[in-house]
Amino acid sequence: MRTPLAVLIALLAVTVFQMCKPQAPTLISGTDAAIKAYVPPGKYDEFYNFVSGGFSGQMTVYGLPSGRLFRVIPVFSEDPTTGYGYSEETKAMLNTSHGYVPWDDLHHPAISTTRGEHDGRWVFGNANNTPRVARIDLKTFRTAEILELPNSGGNHSSPFITENTEYVVAGTRFSVPIGDKTDVPISSFKENFKGYISFISVDPKDGKMNIAFQLKTPGVSFDLSRAGKGPSHGWFFFSCYNTEQAYTLLEVNASQKDKDFIMAVNWKKAEEYIAAGKGEKVKARYARNRYDETTHTATSEILTEVLQLDPAQLKDIIFFIPCPKSPHGCDTDPTGEYIVGSGKLAALIPVFSFTKIQQAIANKEFEGEFAGIPVIKYEAALHGEVKKPGLGPLHTEFDDRGNAYTSFFVSSEIVKWNVKTLEVLDRVPTYYSIGHLCVPGGPTRKPHGKYVIAYNKITKDRYLPTGPELTQSAQIYDITGDKMKLILDFPTIGEPHYAEAIPASIIMPQSVKIFKLEENKHPYAALGEGQAKVERKGNQVHVYMTAIRSHLTPDNIEGVKLGDDVYFHVTNLEQDWDVPHGFAIKGANNAELLIMPGETATLKWKPLNIGVFPFYCTDFCSALHQEMQGYIRVSPAGSAVPLKYSTGKIEDAAIDASR
Amino acid sequence: MKTILFVIACLAWGGCERPKHETSTTVANLPQEEGQASVQDDESQHDLVKIAANSADHTTLVAALRAAEYLDVLANAGPFTVFAPTNAAFAKLPAGTLEMLTNPENKEQLRTLLEYHVYVGVLTETMIRDGMVINMVSLDNATLAKKDSKITINGAAVLGSARGSNGIVYIIDSVLLLPEKSNLKFPL
Predict the structure, then answer these.
(1) Domain around A579
(2) ipTM for the complex shown
(3) pTM for the structure as a whole
(4) A56 with A75, same domain?
């Protein structure tokens, strides 16, 4: 029976035999795993992990290696828990040229850097749906600014940053028709659709964002990007797909070519053209929303102009490099010399050399042009290929020992390889279907190569089931040895895409504990109980309320009438760390407020019925928290009940029922 | 022969102590490992691995996928189009070929051969055009033909198709041989 099947039977028998070996904790990867991820009660984690919330629209903060969740920072989605998007002060944060947008899809955090290393000042995040970039202040862990991006169809290739946070970039995933010619047939894609890349400047002093310029690029889809660093500082690299310029069934029609492109952008050259007056100011309409920490209030402005450069006319700003099979990740290594492309449908990883790219440009080693932009010969830019590393490479992070870690969605694994030799060194499965991955400091010039964290799309049987909708997950691997070791997995909020991690020692010392009352410039702040009052302005009733353990002032309010809009401006008078107060009122078609010490926040309430309505503090603040409550009386429109307010005033003996 | 394979598998399974979960009857001939191919789920539509595992005509293919450690890949979200040679198709290979391929030393070559049967993306029959060239996971091209609604790939006839949760499988009557320029190290 010397047939192939005999061999297979033997093989199967061997496989089965191996299966019978004790399997106990095969995946717990050694007995020291629990110790490695264990942070004893009261002890601190070594790293902060800023994880995108994906379709939650928010950013989450975990500790590493414990995987403990510390905070969900509201960014692009309203958050009734904190009142973000509901309070009068924060509604402006979600304003856009389309009006108020309550939700978005946050994919990528980017922590600010100085000289290519994390500095811990801000973390940026992208809105994938209604194109925007947010800046979160890492002293307060609050969203400080949101800038909308005109001429973008979906801000996926964002918010990657240059070495000194000179720029945050924003590349559109969808090319769209722009300018005066937007009502066009979808089938006129090749003629009318354009891609745009925005370079957002960041004020080094206070982080304020501004669109410095936009590059008008051919109508393709920009997927991800990374800045050069060290020798390649001054350049930016973007992965592009759909160079077929398909506008339907991209699943097939945008996957036809063997190679799409990495787009190399010489942004210093763009700056030269701008200095020489070659930019063109173009009409646009986009919102910029900033949160002021002294007024505790956001303001939104609509901007109407953007500076553009056309690289088809202005030579030497951009170059295309062929990259196999719909590249997704586009990552530069810590030295800045190597650029790793990841063709998500391919089973190889091309690694490009910055030095060779420069030589190829100098020697004009081009294979032709695409939409007026030179295309560098693949071999001329290539350092080498990692052959057969796995299937579906997506993203690559780096350690401080010259190794790269690439995630493979289709084959559900992380593969470790040497950047110089391109040799595959190790591989570990993930459970299941990894998307992004993160090494602390991984995208910087100084990675902390202690862990790699996988962010998985599918968990199926990994946790107790919760019906059809399951959690996504993160998994932490110890990478200090030759072999990667899984030490912990934990569920995440929303869908995690990219994440960055930074040593806690950088963030911890700067963390704000309270807002100082003497710096509170909120126009409706009551900076002491003596300033608490109620004012009527037409049909608006403004309550200047204070909250301190354990009462609200005023806590008895009368004289409000149907048809009024009542604004509760609540100032938390506490100057003590971790003593927020909350505020909610029965029947409000609104959220609650959570007010930090020294802060003022406003809840708008439109009473719809007459009666007496209770309100109370929603955040357990003291032993008498349950007593921290009050009443507001609503009378019919035209009622003669006078406006009055008090706290601690007892007048029941003198009550006149007619009032 | 198929029966023998199946019996050996079942006997061996029965003798093992399960580390977790009960074996699903529908995937009795799949290994109990940790990976997406081993997720116990009798409610969902079958993925391509389960479809192959339940086909009496594809025991050789499933064994080859297992030898190449490729089952978990094809149990992933995909989407895939898999061209699945029947047992008869494998039997048509020159004598000794399968022994060579299933030798653990040649695991990479076996993988490459199998990857030449996988396309990332779902190509339904209506989407297939005569003369269509597709780039397979192995990075080599294959050519589809469609004449009088009869589909072939590199000349191999499509005998039928099945839709799975993560893609589509076309049953073919011959193993697809890699183009000559491929880096597969030995002649097929």
Answers:
(1) 517-648
(2) 0.82
(3) 0.90
(4) yes
